[in-house]
Protein: DUF4842 domain-containing protein
Organism: Alistipes indistinctus YIT 12060
Amino acid sequence: MKAKESLFLLLSGITAFTVLMTGCVKQPDYSGPDDNGQGGGNGFDYATVADVKINVDYSMKGNKAVFEVFAENPVIEKDGLLVRKEGVKSLLKAYTDRDSKYSGVVNLPTATDRVWLYSESYGLPTCVETQVTASGISFNLDSFLENLASQRKDRTAAAAQASLTRGGSTPDNILNVQTPLGGYDIDGKPDYLEKNAATVPDGLMNRVQNVLLPGTNNSQYALPAEKVNIEITQEASLKLVFLSELSQWANAIGYYYYETGHAPKTLQEFLDLPKYVALPNCSMYNGNYEYPGYTPPLKPGMQVRLKYFGQDGQPSDKFPAGITVGWFIMPSGFKISWGQLILPTNFGTFKSSNSDFNNYQEKVCVSLYDKASGKTVIGFEDGADSDYKDVLFYLDADPKGGIDDSDKPVIDPGEEYPDITGDPIEGTLAFEDLWPSQGDYDMNDVVVAYSTTFTTDKDNKLIAMKDVFTPLHSGGSLKSAFGYQLDMPTTAVKNVTIDHFSSSAQTVGGLESNQSKAVIMLFDDIHQAVAQGPITVVTELDGSVSMDKTTRKSLYNPFVCVSSEGFAPGVLRKEVHLTNYAPTLLADPYPFGRNDDKSSVDKQGNPTGPYYYVTADLHPFAIDLPVPDYHIPDESVKIDDFYPDFAGWVTSKGEKNKEWYLKPAK
């Protein structure tokens, strides 16, 4: 308390103002709290939101991605794909680390018992539901999929075996599709996957997404076969590494090859060319599968070794120089309900990179060279929206110079990890202005709605905040100023811009003077502020605060300054904060522990914590509600009368009636 004591000495000459700031009722002599200065009142903090630990592991190495946390399901199914609902707001938006992991904290309404993890990043599930437990939120994709696979009791069809037939097109297999690499299980998972998954090159997924934008026509990258297919320039082995899929269908993909410079010219030549299935079901978990026990078989990084079959039909891991490799997709080629690959019967169910043979000569394949990693990325369009990200994979060649990547479009890395801005966090603050005495507890003396958006960098460092505070109601007769203290030093704030504020507080760079933490005052009188409308605050920060360690609840400490005479800049004032939120350095210590306040104080009556602004009965002096449309109680109607579930919420210390604020009596 040394800093506060020195400030009291500095301001000792303004005792006249101090008397005015102590409230609108006469205070009795100090007698201290009933619990020997420890405070605590009824032991309840009246919090309607809580900071919850969150640990997420998407089980994907080499991929730094953006994800969000929602308290309600944010998606609907449209045309077989999951799309985000309009108007549903996330509670957290952040980057994972480079292995798709995140560990931090998220602020949730206390009524929340489940959350939805949502991502638009390639390679991650679109939406996954998970529970909120006493220990927080914990999600591991590998464990989730293992649990999903354990439920496959009713899916007992036999696995398919490898198959290779010699010869060309036949009436039963008009496109000569073969499965010689191996068999697959009921879900379409190959039994010939490499033992270890590949580590996706750092940033590759982001760079691909920056080029093949979702929901965008990317057909400018779909080029003729001579630009898309891969030329083997020296003997090399090839691995196909799965990256991602965003399709409404369970597609199969594969490859074929021919001598460089001797591409098939006639339809019959193309039909006779053997086509080898590489992945029978290119599906990864996205949250929208309706088959009980079905587990989408693929995850990013899974890889298969492609085989070259000589004239004698014997497989080899090496492709000879002078061979060109082409690609095909079989849209909806895997029948999930049957657990089988369905051979195509026409060019509606088979599309290749040699587009001359596709219906309408449709170009369905893009081939992009990623300069940063040296990988060639292949993207397929299955026929729906021309974004060419329905199946994505890349090639690993050994030696690296074994394939010719010249003349392919180069991925412009652009800004791999741009700053991100989350959805607005909305709520309502309500204050009683007679503290430390009990008032009428209608919780309508000062009512202010807020909307806060955070902007963070790739390391989840907080670099900017935008707040919109809307004064809604003034139900008291006193003049109440409003501001908030941020849990950061003033040095962490680079700049503050405020529109439509009306505070007369002494400031430096938008921050109130004589404060060790950043304090922003917005208006002097709630009565005038209601008439003036919303106040917008943009705060630029130095990046020293990490959003994986803080939330709006822990960062923001809102308060009102109450006086019958009006706000006086630079002097001690009577501040009313949320329960257990500490006062600022300019708060008058005199009211603490007096009348109905049960704050923790020392022998001199100075507030010491951990308890601040607490009472012994049902009613708080201030409350923060996670809704922007709080139904304000009528004048002189106690909050527990206006909201019948309020009393049960308090007496159970928040265990019951957690959404009382959604159920007014009328």
